[in-house]
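Input record (Table S2, row 296):
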Amino acid sequence: MTATALAAQLKEDHIVVGDWIDISPPPQGGEEWKIENVVPRSSAIFRNLPREQKKKVIAANVDVILIVVSAGMPAFKRGLIDRYLVRSDFWEVPAFVIFNKMDLFNDGDFDLIFEAERLKWLNARCFEVSSESKKYTPRYLPDGFDELKTALKGKTAITLGHSGVGKSKLITALSDGLVNLLSGDLGSEGKGAHTTTWAEVIDAQIFTLIDSPGVRSMSLSDLTKQDLLYCFSDVNEWSSKCQFSSNCTHEPNSKGCFFQKLDPALRETQLILSRLDSYKRVLEEVSELPDWSKKS
Ligand SMILES: Nc1nc2c(ncn2[C@@H]2O[C@H](COP(=O)(O)OP(=O)(O)OP(=O)(O)O)[C@@H](O)[C@H]2O)c(=O)[nH]1
Ligand SMILES: [Mg+2]
Ligand SMILES: [Zn+2]
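Output record (magnesium ion complex):
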């Protein structure tokens, strides 16, 4: 696809962080280089702007999304991972989930093995690290810091994750100190301070990183219900097994519902119900605006 065709498709004609361009040198005596062409994008990180009926591209040519979560402070939240995974599916860019701050993790804080099993099911590779100490060896998962470094070789990545989970610290650690990103202090409530405030491309030698505050807003209200069915294809498939599928909300009191007939003692049931729970939460948000207003 040509850049023009892509731009037309995206209803978006400006260049974003991560774009590659062809430029021509200034004529003799001149100083201005000219942008000739935007190289067709292999991927785009974007949001729909329902009101303006267009897509807002935030970054281009991203190979992998690093979903960074904290296993210490701020506290781990599974729902957040599922929300970021919706974006990963929507953008068609694979995701890695990085359990950071593992030096602060205590057995019983949450079931890390279960979370990893669940993410394996969702095709997201998991890593167990401490950006504070590169020597930290994984205790629960097969992959740690060294495996993450290897997996990132030659790739362009973008980090997603709440303020304070350690994104900047992780990048600094992965780059062997070549890049030293500002890390923020956690406030008294253990929340971050949105230290990173501008979009930039960082060359960490082994990989390239796009650090963008533009992907912060995690509202999913720009997606349609149809988009959600695509991003929650697993939930969609289970729902179709419910004998009342067309008008069942799969609530705990729905007698005879597929989800309610599952054995609650099984880990598989817990996985299925946790996905149903995430789906319902996101659906609520997506339903705030009617679908017809989101077509772009
Ligand atoms: N103990 C421990 N602390 C960490 C770890 N990673 C990061 N931190 C600390 O957590 C705080 C927040 O880290 P940042 O790297 O600034 O977090 P961020 O995700 O970039 O935050 P924003 O830029 O605000 O989005 C800092 O005080 C870090 O030193 C870790 O693995 N273990
Ligand atoms: Mg940061
Ligand atoms: Zn049902």
